[in-house]
Every structure is written in C-alpha cells, then in structure tokens.
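Render this sequence as a predicted structure.
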Amino acid sequence: MQQPESRSNSQRRRDVLLVTLLVSGIVAVLLMRLDMMKWPDEQVARARRASLINTLDPNVATAEAMTIISGIGPAKAKAIVDHRDAVREVHGDGVVVFKRAEDLQAVHGIGPRTVEKLRRWFHFAASPSSDATSN
C-alpha cells in the first residue's frame, strides 16, 4: 500500500502565509483598539480646553484650573497665583491684580510672547470676587 503524499512545499508556504496574514490582522485590530481607547481622552482634553476659551479669570482661577491651558504648566500657574497673592497682601484683597492680558507680564517667566499665546484663554473681570472658573 502506498502512503499518502506529504504536503508539498508550495502548500506549506501557502499555510504559513495564511497564518502570518491572520496574525498580522489580529495585531492590527488590537493596535487600532488600543489607539481608539486613547483617542477619547485626548478629545475630551481638547474639548475641555476649548470650553475654557475666554473664561478663566486669573484674578480668581486656581493654579490647577490654569494648568489645563496649553502653555501653562504647574510652575507658571503657581507663579501667577503667587504674584496675585503677593500683590493682594500689599494692596488688600479687593485689588484687581490682572485688569488686562498685558498685566500678566508682571509675573516672573511671562513675557509678551507668552501673553499673546495666553490672551484668548483669559477673561479679565472687574472684581476679584467674580464667579469666573475657579475650580
């Protein structure tokens, strides 16, 4: 009796190719799912920043609230709050420290270029007791 012929080289290559394609497809789907899982967080962060345009009052906003703005990290936000607190300590709590964007240049580390980048994010209220975004 004759034994069945073993698989030919071309059949083996075809099988290896099919398995490779299948594994590649699975990996691609997994990578896309991982990327999609990151996307909403980035989208939420962009939407959150966009909702803050012209709403943050540096006279009342917390350092944490200011760090949401692109270009203001924890150190710069702390410098703004520290400057605001120092001026109020000297002149009283009722003083409006930042009446316009250019007033931010009094804060160490903020110059004209930074003011131009930050201008659209800030709203300058008439009094420090305003209810601008402060959380």
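Summary. Residues 127-135 have pLDDT under 50 and may be disordered. DSSP finds four helices and no strands in the chain.
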